[in-house]
């Protein structure tokens, strides 16, 4: 039986879906104006682990991860924004490219990163810009039911009208009023804590739409409420996000959805805690900001990073260091080597290795609010036992053990383990590698890059290391 910690009730609860055998799962997805970083990925991995766990328990999961592509970009923002290292974005900004192009570029990059780290594709990844009508409909409903008001073409949610405001985060109106004031509240708000559902666009605003109130753009929170309702219905089973989403984003989602439908919005709220880098908050200016490519460029596999996420529980703060990433890599290699050894015949007498205890430990840990560090321990303990046994015997039930490892490590934890130096590289790939090595010797870097792209299309990435080309299956 799966137990999950519910941020709303602040305790672990037995998971019971609304409809037997089916689960609706919503995840707040990326804002596509920059590359996703390893902190974003941690939160998406939690949703993926939940999805995989539920699937392995036999549930049919319908999952949504939205794409926040509604920009609040003005010409000025485009010119002043942090351009990062990316040449295309820099060029897009310089040439005043359409923000849609920028959004699509980073959406693609985010999806590629997710694929590399083996995050299962969501059932739907709706874009906010393609669901403006659903948002307008929900805002109209909120105005009709007197939970929202319009002034000067702007629409705000009136939080005083919703008694349960603050139930998720503890930030009730009363508590908010005790705290600091907002530095620059919108002049049209009745209460500074009311939040925007629709804003009238300033003249130079690029992304804007017609609405009953003004030519403008939606507030951020409304997109998730509208898309969740459209794809999953008024009430959903699970909603996930990072802990920074709890307030104000998820609090606002609850207010909008509950008031619009008159029904409970979400049964289980799941939040992943922050990721620190070297004990500090990750930031570009501190130089401790990492994306998945930054990690793989240093010679690690995406699976190494995934292993590192799994080594800490999603509700505890995670501190990313390269020392811990090395440990993660070691763990992955240990499992891989054990599997390879298990597959290889030896000359010793066969012996049965009972794995029930390891299986039970793994299942119990995963059912206990996705306790992945504990689940991983059971796998590593089993690996030790296998290696010890293989020193003096062969294992008669190796097929059963391999099936368990394949299911637990690959399917449930999502760590790719079959890709290894031991695996044979297809002849076609080897041929391209040879051509590329020749091209590089001849300093024909154009051809070398073309061959790298060719390999990429065939599902392999190649890196140039001091010892030669290093091939990785993507
Ligand atoms: Zn959201």
Overall description:
- With 474 residues, the protein is of the alpha/beta class.
- The protein folds into 3 domains: 1-272, Rossmann fold; 294-308 and 319-412, Anticodon-binding domain of a subclass of class I aminoacyl-tRNA synthetases (Four Helix Bundle (Hemerythrin (Met), subunit A)); 427-473.
- The chain is built from 16 helices and 17 strands.
- The strands form 6 sheets. A 4-stranded parallel β-sheet has the order 4-3-9-10, with helices on both faces.
- α7 (220-232) crosses α8 (246-261).
- The longest helix has 22 residues, at 322-343.
- It is globular.
- The model is unreliable at 73-88 (pLDDT under 50).
- The site of zinc ion has 3 residues, from loops.
Write the layout of secondary structure elements.
Layout (H helix, E strand, L loop, with lengths): L2 E4 L4 E4 L7 E6 L10 H19 L3 E6 L9 H6 L6 H8 L4 H18 L15 H13 L3 E4 L2 E4 L15 H6 L16 E6 L15 E3 L1 H13 L3 E7 L3 H16 L4 E7 L2 E3 L2 E2 L10 H5 L5 H9 L7 E3 L1 H22 L6 E2 L4 H12 L4 H19 L3 E2 L2 H15 L14 H15 L3 H13 L2 E6 L2 E6 L1
Parallel strand pairs: 3-4, 3-9, 9-10, 11-13, 14-15
Antiparallel strand pairs: 1-2, 5-6, 6-7, 7-8, 11-12, 16-17
Helix pairs in contact: 5-7, 5-8, 7-8, 10-11, 11-13, 12-13, 15-16
Bound molecules: zinc ion (ZN).
Give me a quick take on this structure:
This protein is α/β, with parallel strands linked by helices and 474 residues long. The protein folds into 3 domains: 272 residues, HUPs (Rossmann fold); 109 residues, Up-down Bundle (Four Helix Bundle (Hemerythrin (Met), subunit A)), CATH 1.20.120; 47 residues. It is 44% helix and 16% strand.
